[in-house]
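Take a careful look at the protein record below. Let me know whether the structure tokens fit the sequence:
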Amino acid sequence: MTSRARLSTWLILLLICTAFSSCIRNPEAQKRKYLDKGAAYYEQGKYPEAVIMYENALQIDPRFAEAHYGLAQCLMKRSDFQHAYQELMRTVEIDPTFWKAHLDLGTMFLVAGKLTEARDRAETVVKSDPKNAAAEMLLANVEAAQGNLKAALEDANEAIRMDPTRALSYINLAVIQDKKNDKAAAEQSYVKAISLDPKSVTALTALGAYYQRESRWADAQKQYQAAITLEPLNPAPRATLAGLFIAQGQKDMAEQTLRDAKTAIQDNPAAYRMLGEFYLMQGQQDKALAEFASLHSAHANDLVVSRVYAQLLSQQNRLDEANKVLDSILKASPSDPEAQIIRGDILTRQGHAAEAVHVLASAVKDAPENPAAHYYLGVAYAANWSFAQAVDEWKQAARLRPGMVEPHRAMAILSLRRGDATLLADSGAQLMKIEPNAPEGYVFHAQALFQQGNQAGAEADLKKAIAISPDNPAGYARMGDLRMAQKRYADAEKSYAEALKRNPAASDALTGLVNINLLRNQPAKALTLVQDQLSQAPNNSVFYVLLGQVQLRNQNPARAEQAFEKATELDKNNVPAFLLLASVQVTRGSVDQAIGEYQRGLTNNPRDVRLYISLGALFEARGSWQQAEETYQKALQVQPDYPVAANNLAYLLLEHGGDINTALTLAQTARKGMPDLPNSADTLGWAYYNQGVYNAAIDLLKEAAKGTPDSPTYHYHLGMAYQKASNYAMARQELEQTLKLSPNFTHASDIKMVLAQMPQNN
């Protein structure tokens, strides 16, 4: 080769390399290259690959509107509508004239029921492009959603006149015609859409759905299978085919269809999750758990799978395993609200309500529009005895999702515990509205009316509950309660028996029957009833509590103790069983054993204040003041405003040289929580006495003595307050009454000394 030829070759190579290098350095060309590759992958149904290309383009130019739009299209194909919405919003923010993005947003708003927003998007496009058929059809769909079918039909036909070759317009027209019950015209429009675009999966599945609604199963299946053939990597047609099989009761065929989808479309989350979601929908929890365990192993970075898997583990009480999955989610996404909700629920169930409140409050902060976050935060507040805050959160959850049953049920149960008939009536009414064919709301509403004295209204609600669900025991049990209140014992007995017939483990119904027999002074018959029922439900902890109570009525405390012991073994969270067991042991003089039972109960129920109060009272009774104080303080750590613990601790401090200011604060807390109890009036009055505020003390102590006139302690306190206020006549009267009621009163010698030193003529 001559030097001249070599030089020419070198120049050509240099020019090629220069051109290639300039291409690489040209970001505009490179982002367009990624955009084109993304579009090619999208057309082939390779959505994960398309996503990567669009994201590469956006790394070069974050304000590349076409790439944001392409990414949104891929995300919609993968059923990730939340992120697709974000990408569409970013698209129109960058390019307000990107009309396709506006229309896609309008369609999203339409599906979400946000009709005003959908109309706004359509009209925005129409203003700039009056001949835009897609915008005109979106307006037609909005009209149809609002029930304006005549206007919708006019708009749809106008859209077709604008572009008679647009297949999607005929699909929309068919939907409107179907709503107008013009079946023949609807079918013709669907067929026309397919003729215009034979490769349209949307048109094929729309016609298939029409046939399915008409129970033309074979025709529907033919359309869905044609759609699968056209787009084998699109999960949507496979999902519709599975839905067709479910509608026909062919669940095995549906399951196999979804298995095939998982195998054929291995990398698309919308495809590989479908089988697990099917098991969940069918209530097959064990299969769902196994499927999501497999998916979690295969797709460890799929947070949706991880969340569902953690939730299923939690529901199976496999809490340690659930927490491990949650740890992995929160490591990848520390503010993941769904993971925080599951973690908070687990903490509440484990008895760590305060920590649960912290976690769930963070979830609410990160996702303020998430109703589940508010609901579970309410549950945590209730477990933490913060009932007002619990109700606030449940109301917020109900506001965010009006059809959500759980917050109304939670408020109803709480109001039953607290005797709030107004909240109970409202919660019951809401449940009746949400689920008019379920008995639960009617039963709650009946209980509220019963509390308010409206027995006729309560009876009407209960009859409705029984008529709606004759196999549900709740309506019969509450009818038994109503008949008991009316002293119609024979009718009550029948109702309770009906409840037990439907559910042999219905403890409320058995309790009602036992009470009837005890009222009739037939404890032996009551015992037989409980024993017979235990033969049908031998592991019912509540039944053993009933057995123990009946054994006490039958003068058999040893058998009662055995029954209460069995109840605690069957259910370590049965706090009434622990309380009754310890009570029997105290009665027979085994105080140390009773203390041990209270402490055993607290091991499993560390946030139940009833156990602390009973244990503290037992320490008091045997003169262990320091242990009693510590126990009441623990109760107040669980629930700072618990009035009984505050009252008892305040009195101990006053009687045994504690801080008087602390005692006064505690006594005020107790009085606020128990405003009508003589005990709280006495404690607060005695605190004022120790503070030297005698007139305030006298008012409260008079109320206590009037409320419980047989209490020597109350008369003693009042007499001492009168004495300090120099009202010697009243002081003498109250102190003498103290000795009259209890000649061996603890402070009898002090009283006699005060009486001896008191002026006689006052």
